[in-house]
Amino acid sequence: MKLLEDKDKIRYKEFLEGHKRCNFQQSLEWGNVKDSWIKEVILSENKEGEIRGSLCVWIRKIPIFGNIMYVSRGPVCDLHDKEIFKDFLCGANELAKKYNAFVLRMEPDVEKNDEKFREIVTDLGFKIKDDSKDFKDEIQPRFVFQLDLRGKDKDTIFKEFHQKTRYNIRLATKKGVEIKFGTKEDLKDFHKIMVETGKRDDFLIRSLSYFEKMYDELAPNHMKLVMAYYEGQPIAGIIPIMYGNKMWYLYGASSNSKRNLMPNYLLQWTMIQEAIEQGKDMYDFRGVSGVVDENHPQYGLYRFKKGFNARFVEFIGEVYLPYKPLKYKLYKFAEKTFRTFRSLKKKFMK
Description:
Blueprint: E1 2-3, H1 9-18, H2 28-33, E2 38-45, E3 51-62, E4 66-72, E5 76-77, H3 82-99, E6 101-107, H4 115-123, E7 127-129, E8 143-148, H5 154-159, H6 163-174, E9 178-181, H7 187-201, H8 208-218, E10 226-230, E11 233-243, E12 246-254, H9 263-277, E13 282-288, H10 299-306, E14 311-314, E15 318-322, H11 325-349
Parallel strand pairs: 4-6, 12-13
Antiparallel strand pairs: 1-2, 2-3, 3-4, 3-5, 6-15, 7-15, 8-13, 8-14, 9-10, 10-11, 11-12
Helix pairs in contact: 6-9
């Protein structure tokens, strides 16, 4: 086990981009976007000194409680190699002492039914919380849609879409919706539409400066801004992230006007085609609610993503190691109370 040093950064990036479990949220570039956190990377190496596993840990002080250690979508390794996890545990314990952390909290992109992974982490003292259903219950979504692109061409992928999805893509094209790749300057138009979307769909949005920071750190190799126009006016946009063997649909926005032109369908199809051209293995549509009910307020998002014939995936949830169990219980209670209060406040303000 070793902690990442400056001299290791290039080979860490090469390891991450070349691993089948690569995730952009474990990258140094994404860590730079989240500049309010301290970043540390735990490396597991084989006898030859080659990286065989990595765990990017973010550390931040939580008022009253102290420092929390958080891992977003890691680790990157063979999930069934216990020796690697022993290295991670050794590194985490070292970091917990260094930062006086009260918990290590991970939200890995590991499927819920991976019993071998469960066995390894629980044997090493980790606990698992796998009962959340809604977005508000976790930092990262537990339920996602993933489209497997391996061995398929564009025609095959398109034919496998739901009939209504194919119709909407053709409709957008027929009605004259144009798709263009944007620049940093175009983020202003995207953000205006994002504000409109947030008000309509009742969710908090990032500032323009946040998206500009993303662009500075990730574009053009790992981030695109893709905009839809009608008669020269921007009506929708998405931000996909490309890293290693995958592409993720990270942010999307659509204007209240011209939604009948179905620009979001054409935007998704454009980037799925781009992912195929880049040789990606997967297009990840990211989160949906785990409550699959037509009466649920997020059901429309579920139906939209399902229409692309993507697979509905349930991740394991929160895997955590409480260094100070009582403090962590109090923190979780405070976190849940705050989210409930914020939700009630939003309803009251309507």
